[in-house]
């Protein structure tokens, strides 16, 4: 099973996290498939950089987010409260909408 989860980085007592796609059996800081963003809880407000299109891709492939990543994805409206991916407009559709307005 593929998971989207946080990988701890940074110095002792000053962590920041990478949001990675990894096999569920891999260790927390071990092998991963793809790095799709970062999360820094020590900034005010918390800093999140996320490759939205890659997150949507992996959710459509059946990747399950961890609890921490679930909250981050909910904040960006990429998944609903049940954990299902929310349909996102493609880049072509978004450009067409802005051109017609």
Largest beta sheet: what is the strand line-up? 4-3-2-1-5
Distance between the termini: 43 Å
Number of H/I helices: 3
**Major sheet characteristics:** 5 strands, mixed
Category by helix and strand content? alpha+beta
How much of the sequence is in beta strands?
25-35%
Radius of gyration: 15 Å
| Low-pLDDT regions | 95-101
Mean pLDDT: 83
User: Quick one: how many beta strands?
Assistant: 5
Compressed to H and E, one letter per element, the order equals EEEEHEHH
The percentage helix is: 25-40%
Shape descriptor: globular
Summarize the model shown:
By secondary structure, this protein is an alpha+beta fold. It has helices at residues 52-60, 67-75, 91-100, and strands at 2-11, 14-23, 34-40, 47-50, 64-65.
Describe this structure in words.
The structure is a single chain. The protein contains three helices and five strands, in the order ββββαβαα. It is globular. The longest helix is centred in the C-terminal third of the chain and has 10 residues, at 91-100. The termini are far apart. It is of the alpha+beta class. Strands 4-3-2-1-5 form a five-stranded mixed sheet. 28% of the residues lie in helices and 33% in strands.
